[in-house]
Structures are given as C-alpha cells and as structure tokens.
Design goal:
Bound molecules: adenosine-5'-triphosphate, magnesium ion
Distance between the termini of chain C: 31 Å
Largest interface: A-C, 68 and 61 residues
Distance between the termini of chain A: 45 Å
Mean pLDDT of chain A: 87
Structural class of chain C: alpha/beta
Low-confidence stretches of chain C: 1-14
Radius of gyration of chain A: 24 Å
Order of helices and strands of chain C: EHHEHEHEEEHEHEHEEHHHHHHHH
Low-confidence stretches of chain A: 1-22
Helix content of chain A: over 70%
CATH superfamily of the largest domain in chain A: MetI-like
Chains: A mainly alpha (546), B alpha/beta (272), C alpha/beta (323)
Number of domains of chain A: 2
Number of strands of chain C: 10
Oligomer: heterotetramer
Number of helices of chain C: 15
Helix content of chain C: 25-40%
Strand content of chain A: under 5%
Strand order of the largest sheet of chain C: 2-1-3-10-4
Number of helices of chain A: 22
Shape of chain C: globular
Order of helices and strands of chain A: HHHHHHHHHHHHHHHHHHHHHH
Chain lengths: 546, 272, 323, 272
C-alpha cells in the first residue's frame, strides 16, 4: 500500500523523487553489505569446493591476492587500456555526432550514411585488426581505432532518433521565423536529442573499453588485453578474473559517470510529441522500390570505391588486402566460384541459425531487464554492475565457463550471442521507458494505475523509437557476436571460416566472407528497419520524417 | 487491483470531499512560491462546484491536490468520504480532465476513451465509448489520432474520457477552454446530466463566469496567488437548468457579483 | 643524415647510422623469444649495424602478411603456414628454423594421459579451428580416421582441459604444459613430432625479393646472425633470458617462475645434435623433404624446395657452428 | 542568412495578405477529410481581422496555411505583399501564436521570448523581453520554466514571444483561450496597441464573439467543416477602442449578428 502510494506520486514525476527517510539509509546500506558478503562468500565456497582445480572461475580470495601482488603491473595495464578506450570513446562519439549533424543538415543522405556506417561497424576484427596494425605500425593506433569503431554506431543511431523526437509545434516555431535546418538543429533538435545522445554515450562506455581491449590482440605490447592473453594461457584463472573485474570496474565507473551527467543535463519531463502520421502522399510501389534500389546501388558504389581507393591510397599489399575485384573473382568469375559460394552459403546458414535466435534473445533480455530496472530501483542497483561486466568482459576470457554452463550446442551459442548483444538494448530501452510524457503519466496516475500496467500501456509505446534504435544496432552486433561464438565454441559457420582463413592466409576467402557478413548485416538491418517503419508510423509518427 | 472493481461504482452515492488546511508552496524559480494559502473546503456529496479565479492563482494545483496527484504542504489533508484520494483513484472512481488535453498520442480518440475504462478496471464498452464521442461531437473521428484532431476536438475527447468511467468524483480543469462558443453552450447543456446527480461530486475550474453559474450549485471565487477562497456563493437555481434561467435576475446578479469579486467589472464587457 | 657518413653506408659496417628493421615475432612477448631479447639487450644487433624493432604477435596478428607487405623484414612463422601463404600468392622463403622439432603437442592430464596416437581413439580433443588440418594430418599419418576422434572446438585455453571439457588439448609444448606445471597440475605431453607430424617451426621467414636485393639481403644476414648469437647466449643461461624477458617487458604480465620453467623446457626442441654440428637455426634437406610430404597430406599445393634457402645460414655459419 | 535582417522591420508598412482559392483536404483517419472549401480572402494592410467559427472547422489550418507552414491543395495560393509566405518568414516579419503555447521546456519564460528575437534575426533586447513579460503579467516569472507555469501563464508567455519581434504579419490562434476573464479583458485592452497600426496586419482566431468585435476591424465567420467564410462583417468602431464602446448599439448588434450566424442564439446566454 505504501509502495503503491509512493508510485502513484512518482508517476506524476513532480515530487516523487524526494529523499528517503534518513533512518532507512543505514539499514538499507547494511542489507546491501550483507548481500554482498553473502554473494562473495558463496562464490568463494563454490570456487573452493565444487569447482576446485577446474580453473573455470577465480575465487575472491585468489583474485584479491593477485590484485595486490600485481598491483603495479595491472595498474599500468589498466591505465594504458583506459587511455586508449577514452581516446577512442571521444573520437568515436565525435564522429557519431558529426555524422548525425551531416544527416540532419542533409536529410537526403540519411539512408546512405547509416548504411555506410553500418558497413564500417560490421567489419570483423579478424580482417580489420591486422589491417589496422599494418596501417598504424607500432603504438596505440589500432586499439584506439577499434574502440572508436565499437562506439560510434552505438551513439549515431539513437542520436538520430533523438534528433527526430520533437513535436511538430517546436519545428513550427523555427519555421515561423523562416529558419533553416541549422537553426532548428541548434535551438530544438540538439536539446531534444539529449536523452537519446546520453543513452548512446552510456551504452558505448563498455563498448569502448572492450574495443580497446581486443584492439590489443593485434600485437600491442601492453594493456589489459595483453595481460589477459598472458593470464589465459598460463592458466592464471585468478589473474584473468582480476583483470576482467578491473575492466568491469573501470567501465562501470565510466557508465555511472555518464549517467550522472545525463541526470544533470536532461531534467525536464518529456512532452507529448504530437505529429500526424505520414502526411506525404504515398508514392507508387514501383517508385519506392526504385528509390530504395537506387539507394542500395549508391551505397554499394561508395563502399566499393572507398574500399579500393583506401587500399590504394594506403598502398596496402594486395596479398593481404584484397580488392573488390579479387572478391568478385572468388565468388563469381573464377572456375571454382560455385564451390566457394556453396561453402560460404553453408557457413552463412550455420551462422544465421545462431545469430537469429541470439538476436531475439538479446533483444528480449535487454527489454526485460530494462522493464525490470524501471520497475524496481533495487533490481537496477543490483544488476547494473552485472550487466556492465557482461558487456565489457571479452567473451574469450570466460568462454570455458560459458561452455561449461551452457554447452557447445546452438542453445549455448545463442545465449553467448544474446549476452554480447543485450547491453545497448538495455541502456537504450531504459532511456526509452523514461520517455513517457508527463501529461500521459498524469492520466495513469488519475486511475492509480499500477506500475506494471503503466509500463505496458504507456512506457512501452513511449519506448518504441528507442527500442527500434536498439534493434537496429543489435542486428549487426548479433552477427558479429555469432561469428565470435562460432570461433570460440562451435567451430562452424562464418566465424570459424574467417579464423581459419586468417590463419591459413586464405585472404581472398576471408575478404569474401567479410563481404558476406556485411551483406547479411545489411539485410538484417533492412528487415528491422521495415518493421520499425510500420510500427513507428503508428506509435511515433514524428520518427518518419525530418 | 481489479478485485475491488466488480461493484459498479455508479451505483454508490457521491462522496463528500473534505480539504483541511490545504496549502502549497512550490520551489519557485528564485525563492519558494506560495501558491495556495491554507484552505479549508468541503465539497458536498453530489454537488457541482465551480472554481473561478485569476490565471495562476492555484486552481489547477488545488485540483491536483484533491486528486492526490500533488501533496499539500505538511499539515494539510484531503479526505474523500474519509478515504485518501489514492484509495478513490485506485477504485477507478475519480476522473480528472487536465487543462491540456493529455491524450495518449499513439492511441486513437476511441482508444483513448476506452483506455480510461480499462484503467478504472471497468469492462470496455465500445457502444458507450462511441456514444460519448458522439455527444462531444466527435462522431466520425473515433479512429483519428490526437495529432489529427483540432485543439477543441482533443479537449472534447478528453472530456469524453473523463465521463466514460462514470466517476464518483469528477474534476474538470477548464474543460471547454478550447471550444467555440456554440459548442461550449451545447456541451454546457448536454453534458451536465451525466455528472450532476446523486452519484457524482463535481469540481469544475472555468474562466467563464456565466458558465460557472450555469453549471454549478455553488461558485467558489479564488483570490490571486497565493490563492485563497474569497467568496463562496450558492447558486440556487433549480435543476435541470434551462436556457430560460439565463435571463433570470438571479443569474445576472450572480454573474455580476462574481465579476465584481474578480475585478472584471472595471473592464466590464457586455453584461450589466 | 644522408650527408657524408664516413663509411658511406657500407654493407657490413658497424659504424654509420644503424639500419632500422622490424622483426615480427609470432606471439606476445615471453621467453619464447628469449634469445632475441638477449641479442637486443646485449647490443648484438646494434653491433651489427641494425636498429631492430621487435613487433609482438598476438591472436589477431598476421605475421606473414606483415613481412609480405614490407612492414617487417623478417618474421617468425611455421612451415605449413608459409606454404599456405605462398599458395595464396606470397613469395616467402624460409631461411632457418628456431625449433628443431615441432612443438605441437597433445596435452592431457597425468591421471588420464594420452601417450600414443592410439590413445586418442574415442576421446575428445580440444583443437582450435585453425589447427584442425594439422590434427587431421597427424591422425592420417598414424593410420587413424577423423571419425575415431571427437574434435572439440576450443582455443588455447587450458581451462577446457582442467575443467574436464576435453581429454586432450592440441597446443604447444613450451606453452600450456608449462602453465599447467607451474599451477601444480601434472600433465602429459605427447609431441606430435615423435609420431611423424613435424612441420618446421619458428621459421625465420623473409621475402624472396629481400634475398635478391643486395642491401636487404645483407640486413637479413645481420639480423639472423645477431639473433643466432642471442640464442647461443640463451643456451648457456636460459634463466637469465627469462629474467630479461620479465624485466624488459614489465607490462606483459610475465611471471618469472613460469618464464624460467618455459625457458628450460624449450631447450629440448630448440637445440639438438644438428645445432651442435651446424649452428642454431639449422635445417636439413631431409627435413625439407619430410615437410613437403606433410604439405601434401595437409592439402597444400604448389610448395617446392624453392621455399627454403639455406644460403643465409651458410653465410652466418661460414666459419663454423657459432654465429 | 542574417544579412537581410539589418533593416528594422517595424519601420516598414504593414503587408496585404491575399489568399486565392485556398482549399485543404487532409488524409483523414478513414477517407480524405475536406477541411477548407475553396476560399478567397484579402487581409488589408494594417487591418485586424478576427476569425470565428465552430471547433474543428479549419481555423487553425487556415492560419497555418497563411503562414506557409501547411500547403494549400493544388491551385490555391497565399501571397503576402506579393511574396511567398516563406519569404516573409525568412525576413522575421511574421509571428504566430499557436493554439498550444509550445514553449521550449528547457528554456525559461524569458529565454523563450528572447529566442523569438534571435530566430527573427533581431538583436536580443533584454529590457524589451522583460517589459513584454510584465505586460502579460509574468513579472517575476522571467526565470521560471514552462513546467513551473500555469496553463494561462504559458499562453501569455507565448503571446509575449509573438509580440517581441514586432512582426508585420501577426497570426494569433486563440491567444487568450486559457486565461481568466479578468486577465483576458486586461490583455484585450493593453495589447492591441502593440499590433494595430500602420505596421502590422493581424489575423486573430477567437472563440469569444465579444472579443472578436472588440479587437477587430472586421470579423470573418466560418462555417462548419469544410470551412468557408459565410460572413464578412466590418466592425466600424473607432480606435483606440475603449470600454465605453462595448455598451454601444453597434457593438451589441454585431455580437448578436455573429451569434446568430454561428447558431449560438438558440443557446443564447447572457447577452441580448
Ligand atoms: N511544478 C511547479 N513548480 C513550480 N511552480 C509551479 C508548479 N506548478 C505550478 N506552479 C506555480 O503555481 C501557480 C499556480 O499554478 P496553477 O497551475 O495552479 O494555476 P491556475 O490557477 O490553474 O492558473 P491558470 O488559470 O492559468 O491555469 C503558478 O504561479 C505557477 O507558476
Ligand atoms: N494533420 C492533420 N491530419 C488530418 N486531419 C487534420 C490535421 N490537422 C487538422 N485536421 C482536421 O482538420 C479539421 C480542422 O482542424 P483545425 O485545427 O484547423 O480546426 P480549428 O478550426 O482550429 O478547431 P479548434 O477551434 O477546435 O481549434 C479537424 O477536423 C481536424 O480533424
Ligand atoms: Mg490551471
Ligand atoms: Mg484550432
């Protein structure tokens, strides 16, 4: 009863967030402390008994010991990786903002820019890592670049959604004074997009760290990535876990920092975004098809040109850095092309079988967690660290544990894919659930609607744009995650194929596989986009035009 | 949540609302802003009360406090038949029309109205929804989304949403502010039978003094911020009200009196 | 400076500006490259007029590609890998081999040791996707078929073995077995080389064009000579090399005990009678022929004796088996 | 972009607005919804025109079309002194008060008002902003955000925003719909001097017939949807208008006439 009263007031959003009674605080702190003690105690117990000597998990005491013993080495490694991640985070987000500006100022470019951004985001590490190392030589270049690449898409997509999340009347305001896109951007869109931007910035914190970390697998001399390879191969499970915990803690700090800034920056309540459903006259189907086909062709042309042009400019050796025509020959014109295609097709279907269930599982996990977080602050506080940790720990580090828990079957791999995908969805949906307009919240409050019902009837529809932004991000992410899972656990599909290709210098095959992965990601993305258009036309029509 | 709802609320008698020492101070832009001076108020069971007062004097705030959507400052309390407002909301017996229409943008007009019934734990009755939309002049727009409606149409949809649950306590915040004079008068005549009676207690904020007198059993006049009730005028015209009464002495007297209290007189326009 | 250096950039001179070359290692830094570190640390490269940068390898490093693209002058590789690269259009040549015996091994736990190929029958063997062809070839050599053994996709993570997910793990002799030993877990290593599978390993690999260009060939000779000298020092005191590795790469997270253990263990496969007789890094024509036969089994096409070139070793050991 | 703006727009004479064959059909929820029947209309330079008509008849739509925010159906056109509305907007010479205040929630009241000047390419004049806010009764609330204002206060801030740029063409969509009668009358007297004169042409949508007559030189009466202009009544009261005129015969006659045209008569309330 008391709980519900609290909630009804909270729904009005005005004065629900008052400080809790002071006497409750020490008790709550004690409970949290006890909870932690219990969890850690259990963990230690399990590690020392059931799982002893199996080197699947580190135990708290061992981890602590390792941390103390290697304080300076780990500290330095952490600093290196953190620095790479921070620079990459900055660079990636600046790039995202720049791209978003470009799209807002030239809306005609939106589709093309997003597709190109997607292509770059989908480039698998196996192909990209060595390339970057070749391009940069020694140093932090590849780590920073990979961190930036892991980040920019996560910010770009929600940012664009946010830029559109404005009611017609605000756009009318700038239009009244004959102002163009730039002014609208500065006075209206930029501020309105803030919550979505913050969602992107928050989701990309662990991504940046993980990007930098795996970037170190490309032959770096220092950092958490290097240390973890070392720990992994020397069966130093405690060390490995210590490193992963450090990574998680750093990501967590970044995440909390950004969310703190977000809370400071966007205090006003969301308003109702009235916008009429697609007022533009429907163009005939054949014209729509023509336009989208044209767009696809344009994107393809730009990708091919950039591909060939960049390799030529960097003067990359064609032995490793295959050009579009090499792939064409491999897949189409060579006498053995049919075999290659068949091989790729088999692998691609295996991957799809893992990626598709994983995609939906990840999405569902993200949405469900977001819903649970929004219903209960306690759940949020308890699970946020776990979610961040799951996102920033390289899957390679905990693969044996996951396999032990889940097996190598398609269920296990789908779960791995889900674990690697859910985080951006969670963050985006959390912000999306907060987009319930104040006036609508009042309506629910007038009927003392219970939280769960407000969630279903109000928050979920309000979340739709953010959810679909997440769904679009998750499509390529799931595919990439599936390839990693295959490489680690199943030894099948495109992931394994790329690893084997890379190890056996079958670079033409590798690049062809990269092309296939990219095409699959684009196809998945297009499907999601099609569903999104339909749903948002009803639920959030403001999203369907600039 | 729904267990309590099975008894049709319409059958129960209208509640009495008791506000005791209700005051409200907002943290204003610079210093704290006292909006409502301490205020004691009883809305009799089944009565229709109109609240008039200058813009910004705290009328909407008072309505929200009575609905329990805003808490009064410490010491103040609102009881509805002895219950906390939350209880009443939970039973789906309260409806409030906010000053801005606040429809859910992703639902159609009919969907918005039907939603209220679902939220109040009542079975959705599509015929009733359609009938109410028809009464407020939205026949043919059942499937339109809020963005496709004019300002006045949105407001009328919101009124329909309020009435569809047959609430025992009805709070209307300038329900006809955005509709034209003709429609307003039509609604002024056609809707009140839905809410004046033994089953509903109504509090109505309006800027139109004649409307206040026409609709209410009692008109409360509020002072400028910090709002307090400076006059409490029983209307004493018989029900059902008809247009003829508008020309009665009692009516014009009351309108004048309230106008004077509000200071409208010095700008007197049209009447008296 | 390009002006008037006294010796005019003579080919073998130790004076004048040192030539900058990159030497690509096959994995992240560890005592696995202890001899090279010694050469670097003791100034052996510098004495030979080289300014050597050691590029670390890693899970996502294409060593051969770095040499092919010219980013590295020489890299450490493995014969079948080089043959594959060449089949894909590279023109790499093996000019020496640090290991006299392939380090590839099947590691099992001591309480259920796998000691011979026959023991693999019916067992689960963890093997990385990239190594599957190697394991297949090994089975074929020993008259076994693939369906007699269950391949479990895994990476080089010994936890799968300790956790009981596999019975044996395809890995490297001086790597995971050492880690296991240091963790106090008794394991058993079955070197595949002892059962007919012996691809030349840790090969010195360079571009053929580097051997044809006078100046670069000279750099290659100096690099190999310096490296061989380093490994000679290593042979005398592997533990010093381990200490050096830990000290020189403080950020690599190396553990001295493990490094020392590994340093000793890998002596077995790096030094043999052949190295005593001919010098460190030596390989024989028999080995070449054996590798060529192996390539056939592995399905690698187009490799010939041309892939090896002993002239650099000949040059380095012109005056006997010490560099 | 700002080059054109240097000349103060207030100095130029008011523009004439010419609507030719303006019709509008919306893609309605089910079938296309004709909202405006073909409509020809001239707003004389410097005049104040009031537009009255039933809710949902297309008044707001017409305003938006005149501002160029909505396109009329093919064949129709709007010219402002021969220019396209876009041109006029670009010069910062047009201002429109939307039916909902549509303030930017993250800006203060003063910030919202000042923004209009920036958007119109005019230097921000804080004294002027403060003076206008004072005129609409928001003194002391300059720093308040929209969420901290009452409905009527928001609307008044929006009016101030419209006036702060001294537009040559002023479009007001029920600017006083949410304010109480007293404030409304005060504003009805105090604000018009700012917009009636040689430099501004004004079109005002209102639901209050007396207000229409009081403020306008000419009252246009619209029919129900699809809207067309059924009467065009010159007011012919001298300016500046004073309260005394409200009791003049001409005034009450006009109010009655419009009431009849709108059909309000049958529900006649209070007047005549
Ligand atoms: N959330 C809030 N925070 C701060 N001040 C507020 C808040 N809500 C309302 N106010 C202030 O309280 C006063 C009364 O507001 P309220 O909305 O109750 O007025 P009202 O009588 O309904 O006026 P109107 O007739 O214009 O709707 C106003 O001065 C307003 O600035
Ligand atoms: N974007 C739109 N899409 C579809 N229909 C619309 C749209 N905008 C307005 N309409 C319809 O056009 C008609 C006229 O709307 P408009 O807002 O112009 O009315 P109005 O005369 O201003 O009414 P009110 O006095 O209630 O504000 C309404 O029936 C409305 O349903
Ligand atoms: Mg109000
Ligand atoms: Mg309107």
């Amino acid at each position: 009863m008391v709980l519900q009263g609290e909630q009804a007031v909270q729904a009005t959003g005005r004065d629900g967030d008052g400080p809790r009674p002071a006497r409750a605080r020490p008790a709550a702190a004690l409970r949290v402390l006890l909870g932690w003690v219990l969890v850690i105690g259990l963990w230690e117990l399990v590690g020392r008994t059931v799982l002893a000597d199996r080197h699947l998990i580190g135990v708290p005491s061992g981890i602590l010991g390792t941390l103390v013993e290697n304080a300076d080495v780990y500290g330095r490694g952490l600093w290196f990786t953190t620095r790479e991640a921070m620079i990459g985070y900055l660079a990636g987000n600046v790039a995202a903002v720049a791209l978003a500006l470009l799209v807002v100022l030239l809306p005609g470019l939106e589709r093309t820019v997003l597709r190109l951004a997607l292509v770059v985001y989908c480039l698998p590490l196996v192909a990209l890592g060595p390339l970057l190392r070749l391009a940069y030589g020694f140093g932090d270049g590849p780590q920073v670049t990979l961190a930036a690449l892991a980040v920019y898409y996560l910010t770009l997509v929600p940012l664009l959604v946010g830029m559109r999340a404005v009611p017609r009347s605000w756009l009318d305001l700038t239009a009244t004074y004959g102002r163009g896109r730039w002014t609208t951007l500065v006075t209206v869109r930029a501020r309105a997009a803030l919550p979505y931007l913050m969602a992107g910035l928050q989701a990309s914190v662990p991504a940046a760290f993980l990007g930098a970390l795996v970037g170190e697998f490309t032959g770096a001399e220092r950092g958490i990535g290097v240390l973890s390879i070392q720990a992994l191969r020397s069966l130093d499970t405690d060390g490995l876990w210590a490193l992963m915990i450090l990574s998680a803690v750093v990501s967590m700090i970044g995440y909390v920092l950004v969310s703190f800034i977000a809370r400071r920056l966007a205090p006003e309540q969301p308003t109702v975004l009235l916008a009429t459903p697609g007022a533009d006259p429907r163009r005939p189907a054949w014209r729509r098809w023509l336009v989208s086909a044209g767009g696809v062709a344009l994107t393809a042309a730009i990708v091919l040109l950039a591909w060939a042009g960049l390799f030529w400019l960097l003067d990359l050796n064609p032995y490793f850095a295959k050009r579009p025509w090499d792939v064409w020959e491999w897949l189409v014109s060579a006498p053995t092309a049919a075999e290659h295609r068949a091989e790729l097709f088999t692998a691609a279907s295996q991957t799809a079988l893992v990626a598709v269930p994983g995609y939906f599982a990840g999405l569902a996990l993200g949405v469900l967690l977001a819903a649970a977080f929004s219903l209960s602050a306690r759940v949020r506080r308890a699970l946020t660290p776990v979610a961040v940790a799951l996102r920033c720990v390289p899957i390679i580090a905990i693969a044996p544990l996951l396999v032990a828990a889940l097996g190598r079957g398609s269920f296990g791999t789908a779960v791995v894919v889900a674990l690697m995908t859910f985080f951006p969805t969670l963050v985006s949906c959390l912000y999306g659930l907060g987009r319930l307009p104040g006036q609508v919240a009042d309506v629910f409050a007038a009927y003392a609607t219970p939280r769960t019902r407000v969630l279903v009837l109000g928050r979920l529809p309000a979340m739709a744009p953010a959810f679909f932004a997440a769904a679009r991000i998750a499509a390529p992410t799931a595919l990439l995650a599936a390839t990693v899972a295959e490489w680690l656990a199943t030894g099948t599909g495109l992931g394994n194929m790329m690893a084997v290709d890379a190890a056996t210098s079958r670079y033409t095959s590798l690049w062809s596989t990269v092309v296939v992965v990219t095409l699959m990601a684009l196809a998945g993305y297009a499907l999601v986009e099609a569903v999104e258009r339909r749903v948002l036309a009803v639920v959030a029509p403001e999203q369907s035009r600039w | 949540m729904t267990g309590v709802q099975t008894a049709r609320t319409a059958g129960r008698p209208a509640p009495e609302v008791l506000c005791t020492a209700v005051a409200k101070t907002f943290p204003g832009p610079a210093e704290p802003l006292p909006v409502l001076a301490s205020l004691d108020l009883t809305l009799e069971a089944g009565s229709v009360t109109a609240l008039v007062g200058p813009s910004g004097c705290g009328k909407s705030t008072l309505l929200r406090i009575i609905a329990g959507l805003e808490h009064p400052d410490a010491g103040g309390s609102v009881r509805i038949d002895g219950d906390d407002p939350l209880e009443v909301r939970r039973r789906g017996e309260l409806a409030i029309a906010f000053q801005d229409a606040s429809l859910l943008p992703w639902r159609t007009a009919a969907g918005n109205v039907a939603l209220a019934r679902r939220l109040a734990g009542q079975p959705v009755d599509h015929r009733k929804v359609a009938r109410l939309l028809g009464m407020v002049g939205l026949a043919g727009f059942e499937k339109a989304r809020p963005a496709q409606l004019s300002g006045g149409m949105r407001q009328r949809a919101a009124i329909a949403r309020c009435l569809v649950t047959e609430p025992r306590l009805l709070l209307l915040d300038e329900p006809f502010g955005a509709v034209d004079e003709l429609t307003r008068r039509r609604l002024n005549i056609e809707l009140p039978p839905l809410w004046s009676g033994a089953t509903t207690t109504t509090l109505l904020v309006t800027h139109s003094i004649p409307e206040a007198v026409l609709l209410a059993d009692r008109v409360l006049v509020m002072s400028a911020r910090p709002g307090s009730i400076v006059a409490d005028l029983p209307v004493g015209l018989e029900r059902p009200r008809r247009m003829q009464q508008l020309h009665s002495r009692r009516f014009t007297e009351l309108v004048d009196r309230i106008g004077t209290l509000l200071g409208v007189d010095e700008y007197a326009l049209g009447q008296g | 400076g390009n002006e008037a250096s006294p010796s005019g950039g003579s080919a073998s001179g130790t004076d004048g500006p040192a030539a900058a070359v990159t030497y690509q290692l096959s994995w992240t830094h560890s005592v696995q490259f202890g001899g090279t570190y010694l050469a670097q640390d003791r100034g052996l490269f510098r004495d030979l007029g080289l300014d050597v940068s050691l590029a670390a390898g890693g899970p996502n490093v294409a060593g051969d590609a770095n040499t092919v693209s010219g980013a590295a002058l020489m890299n450490v590789s493995v014969a079948d890998g080089v043959a594959r690269s060449n089949a894909e259009g590279a023109d790499l040549v093996i000019i020496g081999a640090q290991y006299q015996k392939s380090p590839v091994t099947i590691l099992s736990l001591a309480d259920a040791p796998l000691t011979s190929p026959q023991d693999l029958v019916g067992r689960k063997i963890g093997v990385a996707g990239t190594d599957t062809p190697g394991l297949e070839a090994f089975l074929a050599i020993n008259g076994l078929t693939q369906d007699q053994v269950e391949f479990v996709p895994s990476q080089y993570d010994p936890a799968v073995l300790t956790a009981g997910q596999v019975d044996g793990l395809y890995c490297f002799y001086n790597d995971l077995p050492v880690a296991l030993a240091v963790q106090g877990i008794e394991g058993h290593s079955m070197l595949l080389a002892d059962f007919g599978y012996d691809p030349m390993s840790q090969t010195y690999t360079v571009l053929r064009s580097s051997l044809q260009d006078e100046a670069r060939r000279d750099q290659v000779i100096r690099l190999l000579r310096g490296d061989a000298r380093g490994w000679q020092l290593y042979q005398d005191d592997p533990r010093a090399a381990a200490e050096l590795a830990v000290q020189a790469y403080p950020d690599a997270g190396l553990d001295l005990e493990t490094q020392q253990e590994q340093a000793t263990v890998q002596l077995d496969i790096m030094f043999s009678e052949a190295t005593e007789q001919f010098g460190f890094g030596w390989f024989t024509d028999d080995q070449v022929q054996e590798n060529l036969r192996l390539f056939e089994l592995l399905g690698i096409e187009g490799a010939t004796e041309q892939m090896w070139d002993r002239s650099i070793l000949d040059e380095v050991y012109r005056d006997g088996p010490t560099a």
